[in-house]
Amino acid sequence: MSPPLASIIITTKNEEKNIGNCLLSITEQTYPHLEIIIVDNHSSDRTREIALKFTDKFFLKGPERSGQRNYGMIEVAKGKYVMFLDADMILGPKTVETCISMVESEKWAALHIPECILGKNYFSRVRRFERSFYNGTVIDGARFFKKSIFVDVGGFDETLSGPEDWDIDKKIKKIGPIGLLPLSPYYSEDTPWKLSKFIINHGVNPSGKWNCIFHNEAEFNLIEYLSKKKYYSTNLDSYTKKWGKNDPDICKQISILYRFFGVFLENSRWKRFLLNPYLIPGVYLLRFLVGLQFLRRNF
User: Fold this and answer.
1) For 167, phi and psi rounded to 5 degrees?
2) Taking the complete model, does pTM exceed 0.90, yes or no?
3) Helix 164-173 to helix 236-243 angle, to the nearest 10 degrees?
4) How many angstroms separate the CA atoms of 138 and 143, rounded?
5) What is the DSSP letter of 44?
6) CB-based burial of residue 252 (10 Å sphere; 0-12 exposed, 13-18 middle, 19+ buried)?
7) How far is CA 229 from the centre of its chain?
8) Where do the domains of the chain lie, and which CATH numbers do they carry?
9) What is the pLDDT along the chain (299 residues), one digit of tens a residue?
10) Residue 297 region by backbone torsions, left for phi larger than 0, else alpha for psi between -120 and 50, else beta
11) Taking a C-beta distance cutoff of 8 angstroms, is the pair 210, 182 a contact?
12) Which of 26, 84, 112, 248 sits between 20 and 30 A of 55, alpha carbons compared?
């Protein structure tokens, strides 16, 4: 039997600064049986020009990312497996290979993939540290799916902007379990990974993270960060109403206690948390400011 095809869908809008590295990281995968699909929200910059150097599967769809993702993953993708990325993400070279190996051998319905935020300034390092505790928790969201299951659940709920990642996880869990991809410490290719220098120059050593998603958010900007959090919280009430405020996942996702303490302390993670005392004040400052945004939205 031939190896299964994996379809990778990238949603874009005016991403000329990022799309090249994202697509290069896909061509650098150790797993060769891939198709690259770009679903663009009518970019006015060089996004299309750059993308067409890597793939001829370039489509226009908008305005929300959920609709873009659904179009690429349901209507266009030919693969047995589908995966979505934002244009500012870079795939470690073993990501697709290890995802397929894990799902084929253990029958997961979908996978969470560890994410590492790039950046050198203090708050970029704080965000990288904070995000590392979310991997595989209810705050995380699956990125790699069996296409048949993704289609069966109807894809992303296009009425939700922000909580749609949590919503798709809840729909998938009704059919099968979601796993967390363990980080791969080995990369034995004869030629160096072409993006290693870029990752290192942005504050992270890729060694031991060969199947991680590197998120190139650029150096941390507080106003942009809070604006994004505010936007993504606009449909939180609709998501809560859909599943019920007593749903155990939602109780954690919107809980102050869990978001401020539980996610950093559960499953012995508190040991790693306390080993980085210089980052902890930054984590709680950001949590506090995001909490204020949430309170302003409600009152």
Assistant:
1) -65, -45
2) yes
3) 20
4) 14
5) S
6) middle
7) 15
8) 6-220 (3.90.550.10)
9) 789 999 999 999 999 999 999 999 999 999 999 999 999 999 999 999 999 999 999 999 988 899 999 999 999 999 999 999 999 999 999 999 999 999 999 889 999 999 999 999 999 999 999 999 999 999 999 999 999 999 999 999 999 988 999 999 999 999 999 999 999 888 876 778 999 999 999 999 999 999 999 999 877 888 888 888 877 777 888 999 999 999 999 999 989 899 999 999 998 999 999 999 999 999 999 999 988 877 666 65
10) alpha
11) no
12) 112
Q: What whole-number distance in Å separates Cα of residue 228 and Cα of residue 62? A: 18
Across 102-119, b (16+ Cβ under 10 Å) vs e yields: bbeeeebbbbbbbbbbbb
- Give the residue from 207, 14, 171, 18 showing the smallest Cα distance to 94: 207
**Token pair for residue 61?**
């769809």
Whole-number Å distance between alpha carbons of 139 and 52: 34
217: number of CA atoms within 13 Å, CB side? 22
Q: Is 19 exposed, middle or buried (0-12, 13-18, 19+ CB in 10 A)?
A: buried
